[in-house]
Write a structure and sequence with these properties.
It is built from eleven helices and twelve strands. By secondary structure, it is of the alpha+beta class. The strands form three sheets. Strands 8-10-5-11-9-12 form a six-stranded mixed beta sheet.
Length: 357
């Protein structure tokens, strides 16, 4: 008579001890993100993250803003390169820069990391990147979840998502109702592709062009993989600084859908945003995606940010102050267009002219 071994969680592929070790490794990074409102409240490992809402008493009418996002297929490149400590910057940027569009200060984030197998050091590296991104954004990382899904994901596969909460005073809420004819459209340079359009980018460079991640690309001055993993720029504190130093009527976070489509989301009926391509030169990566994949310009522009990661819409008299504030904070910015009346055949926003070369 043969002996049989009973089923167990470990035999099914879930390693609880590895998960516990991952939590211990990430604690030091999460601690670096603490704001006064979370200090001394629980700690990592609890069932819920805590935030002291009494801090909101200084607001007359606080409005809470919420956003959630991921980083798409960029995670596949991180996995293939074995680089796990930058993808968290992308995650934070995608979330907090959506929050700041309405003028909200990011307060805290939670994350969700799904893996095929828990490698504690790898998970800790991902959280390290998220924590560093939260520091850059000025928000706290108050908790998260690491889920192990053996059988659904391969041992090295993973995905990340996050959710954030921010606050804005009701009478400081930004949106289409503030934007006026004659306002200036100020562009803020992106750090590269950010975290959108990677399905197209991967198809172009790997499937069509046959390039490898370790290919040295003269135009980049580094490998293809290093260029593609360049972290998303986080603009939240820069945008909040603008709202404190000058009048701002609106922001637009340039993500999936490209510059024109995202800008149109904050333009009210009756008005039109015209952006002049000749005011900037997109980075080399955008040009190479187009050439390597024979991608038409309009297809590039509705998929990628083309070198602009955030837009600020300000009154004409606030332009100089806005540009000075951004320059002081190390953000390359310029006047890229203006707000005009919408004609019979115009949409919310459009790009005109040719890019500067």
């Amino acid at each position: 008579m043969s002996e049989t071994t009973g089923a167990s969680y470990a035999a099914a592929g879930v390693d609880i001890e590895a998960g516990d070790r991952a939590v211990e490794l990430m604690k030091e990074w999460v601690k670096k993100t603490q704001r006064p409102e979370v200090a001394g409240l629980g700690g990592l490992g609890g069932f819920a993250g805590l935030f002291d809402a009494s801090a909101l008493k200084r607001y007359e009418r606080p409005l809470l803003a919420s956003a959630t996002d991921g980083v798409g297929t960029k995670v596949d490149l991180a996995r293939k390169m074995g680089v796990y400590d930058t993808i968290g910057h992308d995650l934070v940027g995608m979330v907090v820069d959506d929050l700041v569009v309405c003028g909200a200060e990011p307060l805290f984030m939670t994350d969700y990391i799904c893996v095929g197998k828990v490698h504690p050091e790898r998970v800790a590296a991902i959280v390290k990147g998220i924590a560093e991104g939260c520091v850059l954004a000025g928000c706290a990382l108050v908790g998260g979840e690491t889920a192990e899904h053996p059988g659904l994901l391969g041992p090295d596969d993973f995905d990340v998502a996050g959710a954030g909460t921010g606050v804005v005073e009701a009478d400081r809420l930004l949106g289409p109702d503030r934007i006026r004819k004659g306002d200036a459209v100020i562009a803020m340079a992106s750090s590269g592709l950010h975290s959108n359009g990677y399905s197209l980018v991967r198809h172009v460079f790997f499937d069509r062009a046959g390039w490898s991640l370790d290919r040295q690309v003269e135009e980049f001055g580094r490998t293809l993989g290093e260029e593609l993993l360049e972290p998303t720029r986080i603009y939240s504190l820069d945008c909040l600084a603008l709202t404190r130093t000058t009048e701002v009527h609106g922001f637009s976070h340039v993500t999936g859908g490209g510059l024109a489509n995202n800008l149109a989301r904050v333009i009210p009926d009756g008005l039109h945003a015209t952006v002049d391509r000749s005011t900037w030169t997109p980075g080399a990566v955008f040009d190479l995606v187009g050439k390597a994949g024979q991608v038409e310009q309009l297809e590039l522009e509705k998929t990628l940010n083309m070198g602009v990661g955030m837009i600020a819409i300000v009154p004409a008299e606030s332009v100089d102050a806005a540009l000075t504030t951004l320059a002081d904070r190390g953000i390359d910015s310029w006047v890229a267009g203006e707000i005009t009346e919408r004609g019979a055949h115009t949409s919310g926003a459009e790009l005109v002219g040719g890019y500067a070369r």
